[in-house]
Amino acid sequence: MTENETFKNMVENAYLQQRQMIEFNYAQFRNMVENAYLQQRQMIETNSSIMKNYSNMFGNNEIAGNIEKVESHFLTLNDEAKKSMLDQLDLAKDNFLSNAVKIKDGFKDTANFDKFKFNSDGSTGPTQESK
Questions:
Q1: Measured between alpha carbons, how far is 65 from 70 in angstroms, rounded to an integer?
Q2: Secondary structure of residue 118 in the 3-state scheme
Q3: Distance set, CA 125 to CA 4, 74, 121 (Å)
Q4: Alpha-carbon span 119 to 1, nearest angstrom
Q5: SS (H, E, C) 2-67
Q6: pLDDT single digits (tens) 43-70
Q7: Which of 56, 55, 51, 95 is nearest to 74 (CA)?
Q8: In the prediction, which pLDDT does 104 show?
Q9: Which pTM value belongs to this model?
């Protein structure tokens, strides 16, 4: 395997590792958003239930009805927040993957990697012997 092939393989492996890390981080953040959404939803429903029970115990059905409306609004806001966060996360993932491909292709399209190689005199690029 030539040095150019070795370098191209290194670039390809680095790209694959970067892609795997992007996918892994995306999955972790998505799970965090999902978990936060579910916790928030449970908290809204629990608090609403407690407040409705107290209102009904004291015979104030009008307040219980208002609590249901507020609960519905909070649940809708929670759903919208989750959707917005996941949309932003998808956009960030797509941008990171696109940039990773551009970087890989930039190296892949380079015909000769000798210009990156250090010579014994400390210079870089092909030597007279290698030309």
A1: 9
A2: strand
A3: 12, 63, 11
A4: 19
A5: CHHHHHHHHHHHHHHHHHHHHHHHHHHHHHHHHHHHHHHHHHHHHHHHHHHHHHHHCCCHHHHHHH
A6: 999 999 999 999 988 888 889 889 999 9
A7: 51
A8: 86
A9: 0.73
